[in-house]
From TrEMBL:
SUPFAM superfamilies, A to Z: NagB/RpiA/CoA transferase-like
InterPro entries for this protein: FTHF_cligase-like_sf, LUD_dom, NagB/RpiA_transferase-like
Domain LUD, chain residue ranges per copy: 49-212
Superkingdom of the organism of origin: Bacteria
UniProt source species: Streptomyces resistomycificus
Record protein name field: Lactate utilization protein B/C
Amino acid sequence: MSSRERILGRVRRALADVEQDDRPYEQAFARDYLREHGDLDVEQRVDLLAENLADYRAIVHRCTAADLAATIAGMLAARGSRTVLGPPGLDPEWLSAAEAERLADRAESTPYELDRVDSVVTACAVAVAETGTIVLDGSPDQGRRRITLVPDHHVVVVRVPEQVVSSVPQALERLDPARPLTWISGPSATSDIELDRVEGVHGPRTLEVVLVTA
């Protein structure tokens, strides 16, 4: 008998006297928790998102759709980015004013090649105001997870107000759990036992979020 068979056998014996619950998953658990804290209007929701993003040390920009290309170009220029990578479904107008060389997202790119990319620009699936969280779901305008984890600078565009929700439960209703979800709350960071913060450990060292209105 293998170790796997022994472990599964113990689990079966432990569950032998547990009553079978055939209720659908949606009915198995009470979901009477708060869906959001307070009743925020659109402006308050967006302001809360910007505040929490900044609290996580993300850099927040606001602009209109007409100014988006210029805003992104200015951000890349200020950082001195010579190359910028965008996923294949990204609106080409967003990078139309950028002077940096546009790189394609290639499946054969190695981590070392991606590490040499100066900046990455993507859209997002949804943004959560209460937690300051940006969620990517691997859609064509967001690309594969690794292009937003390996390069050191990530620019995320959030469409206001349609992509901004108040709470995590509201965000989950918009997301497909079968997709590769990436939840981002500020730039990647960790702290050691002395609470010395180090950024860029598990993802981009710098996160810039553009809140763009129509």
